[in-house]
Amino acid sequence: MKKKMSKTTKNNFITYAMVIIAYVIVQALVLSGSLSSLMQGLLVPLCIYVILALSLNLTVGVLGELSLGHAGFMCIGAFTGAFFSKCTQGAMPDGLRFFLAIVLGAAVAAFFGILIGIPVLRLRGDYLAIVTLAFGEIIKNVMNVLFIGKDSAGFHFSLKDQMSLNLGTDGVVIIKGAQGISGTPKNSTFTIGVIMVLITLFVILNLMNSRTGRAVMAIRDNRIAAESVGISITKYKLLAFSVSASLAGIAGVLYAHNLATLTALPKNFGYNMSIMILVFVVLGGIGNMRGSIIAAVLLTLLPELLRGLNDYRMLIYAIVLIVMMLFNWSPKAQDWKARHSLKRMFGKKEQTAKEGN
After folding, report:
1. pLDDT score at 341
2. What mean pLDDT is predicted for residues 235-240?
3. Using H for helix, E for strand and C for coil, what is the string for 75-90?
């Protein structure tokens, strides 16, 4: 047991070190002027996509449930954080305001994760995927018709238009329906993004190696056996799902504070965004956090490096997704992996026996 724990700790430190070393190298390239302005503009989105991939891997890889509504939780975090920053701009220091925006975005996304998770997590397989997909589309469409204004009398809400807010002479419209929120402070930086990536890794890796994480993985592996030994299925599934949603909310806050104008467009928070995040998870390896980081970075950089193939990006993602799922779940692939692991295991035993003699 002690040996296993030390190996796990070592692997976790390697993952942290990989992120820190990458950060140091990129910072050195930026300071030396070797990194183009285009690549510098991708640094914060890279951190956002890595957080999204890690958080979805918690649902898909650790919990074992297929969710296609991750962009919806990102959207909730983005608009919550941007709304808070817009309302409190000038009322407190920038650093404190941004920190509170991240906390609030994570909390509201987690709340919606619990709210959606209570009825949704009773479903399985394709049904769960369809309902979470519908949730993401509903959130996006609601944000496109939501108007919120503020005046001396307080906040005003409407789902029609700006005129129906009935604001006073001192009134200001904060959320303008399909036009979104404009003028959000651009507080997101590469350094803050990397810190958020490390925090996300810390939360997920510690959860996986805790008693709670082992209970969640037991539910994933065999629901009936887990329930028979007294594991509360609803409690642990809801916990993992809400943590995943809160981390997606953090990514949304970073996203909102990296743009001058935040809008709920299909390309930002639609179906394609959820599928893209799922591709990061599948390509990197379901349940493999280090692989999710590498896949998110590679698939974010490749369209920019190969701009000629940008129009075929979703087609390439679809092909990669199908190939990886066939490789992971087809009976022949599973037989090959089982034989390979058995050979490796027996090879190690033979080597140990020779060393003992």
Report:
1. 55
2. 89
3. HHHHHHHHHHHHHHCC
